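User: I'm writing a short report section on ligand binding and want a predicted complex to refer to. Could you take this sequence and biotin and write out the structure as tokens? A short remark afterwards would be nice.
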Amino acid sequence: MDVDSVIGTKWLFKSENFLFYDHLLSTQDRAKELIKNRVGKPGYVIISDEQYRGRGRFGRLWISEKGKSLTFTFIVEKIPLLSMRTALSVVETLKEECGLHTEIKWPNDVVIDGKKICGILVEIEKNLAIIGVGININETVPPLENATSVRIETMMSFSRESILSSFLSIFEHNFKKENIMESIREHLSFLDRYVEIKTKNGSVSGEFINLGDNEEIIIRTDSGSIVSFLPGEAKRVDRLVE
Ligand code: BTN
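Assistant: Sure. The structure tokens for the complex follow:
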């Protein structure tokens, strides 16, 4: 990766706080260690060309191809709607840099035609948020079934450096943005649709009527009752045909 072309003039992400690696087990784990060792602070960005043990939600493995995928973690102060601010920033970056129309799939994926192009993992360490982002950029073969990449969708290769640099600028803007909910809703997949949510205790179906301030999905069930689930309570959400 061409390091210099990633680092722009940014108020939150300053050049001295960028850490680039050829390989790591996981950028997420590296960020945690840095915070534990009192080195990692808000504004740190950890980027690795390859991860040997990338992590996804619920302890799943995150598979990414060396040199093709964009895998990084950044540290910020905890504020509301962090997963959604990140997902929105990915959607806006892919539109601006690659002309791709993607959507936010609650709780923290970015998809195109239902296929996953980006996964986001938000974890908390010592009251700081560690946000891991994996975007499939130049893969010619999807890393998983029902996944895709920018290259597969556009038939073009893109510079991961430009996409990262653009993402960080857009995130800085969205991090400070007040009244961000409207922009999030505009890009939220399945909003106002009939969905099924799989939780640890079974599944619930109903209309996805709103997103709460704690990123909870708010559902009107068939019996008319309103229920909500926090991101950590739901394994997945699928659209059901009405
Ligand atoms: C998910 O979809 O379950 C979330 C995937 C998050 C993957 C990213 S890649 C960079 C960072 N490092 C990790 O080990 N995981 C996140």
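A remark for your report: Residues 82-98 form the longest helix (17 residues). The pocket of biotin is lined by residues 26-28, 51, 54-57, 60, 62, 71-73, 109, 119-121, 132-134 (CB under 6 Å).
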